[in-house]
Amino acid sequence: MDKEVGFHDKINVSEEGNKNPFFIMEIEHAPKNEDLVTRNIHRHPFYEMIFVTQGELTIEVDFKKHFVKEGSILLFSPLQIHHPEKVTKKYTCVLIRFYPILFESADFLKDISVFNYDLISLNEEYFNKCKTVLKELIEEFNSDLPLKNIAIGNLLKNFLIALQRSIPEDTSEKSVEDVFSKFNYLIVENEFKIAKPSYYAEELRISSRSLNDITKRNTGFAAGEYIKSKTIFEAQRLLCYTSLTVKEIAYALGFDDVAYFSRFFKKAANISAIEYRKEFLSNNKVS
Q1: Closest by alpha carbon to 57, among 45, 39, 69?
Q2: Is residue 58 domain-shared with residue 88, that is, in the same domain?
Q3: pLDDT tens digit string along 120-172?
C-alpha cells in the first residue's frame, strides 16, 4: 500500500491544537486535480456533516458511492472512511464538525437516528429551516460572546432536531427506532470491537431478547449477527485503507486469538483477510 488512509484528528486545520469541540465553515469547491483528491481519503474521530447549498458532488463513504445534490446533507459518524471523487463542477457547502462533549447531555445523540443515515435529502421547508439555523451557528462560532459553546450546543441541537423531523416517522416505530439508534451509537463508541449482545443489552437496560427482536425488525438479522457484520466491515476498512497487519487489526477489534479472527473473517467474507487486502489493492490504486 503506497499510502494509507489519513486520520485527520484536527477539527479545525487552521488552529493549533484541538481546543474546540466544534467547527463550522462555508466552503466553495472548484474542480481540482485527481492527485489532490486521492490524498483526501481519510477518517475522523469526530462527527461531520456536509450540507450542500449549491451544486453537486460525488463521494464514496465506506465503499458506497453517494451522489449529493443541492438540498442534501451527508452525515459521517466517527471513523467512517471518506473518499471524495474528482470535483468536475463547482459546489458550495457548509462543513460542520463536532464532538458529543458539546452537548450538556451525552444521551442526546442516542436519542436521534439521523446518524443511522449517510445521506438525507431535504424538502424545501426543511432546507430553509436548516439554512437559517446554520447561518446563526456560523455567526455564533465567529463571535467572541460569553457562553459561546453553550449557545453553539443549543443551536446544533436545533439543527439536528430539524434533520430528525425531516425524516418521515411512523409513530408506532418510534421506541424501536430510538433503541436501535442507541445500539448503533454504542457500537461506534466501542470502536466496532467484537462483543456479545448481552454487553449492549446491559448498556441499553433492556433484555438480550428485546435487543434481538429490535435488531431483527430493523435489519432482518439477529443482534449477534449484526454486531459481527459491523466488526467485519471495520476489518475490511482497516485492511483496505491502512497498513496495519492482520494481527494488529485482530487486536484492535477485540480478538485475543489472531487465528480465531482469521477464521472469523474468512467465514464472513469467503476469503482470507490477506487475500481480501491483495484483491482490493489490485483493483483500487490507493496512492
Answers
A1: 69
A2: yes
A3: 999 999 999 999 999 999 999 999 999 999 999 999 999 999 998 898 764 44
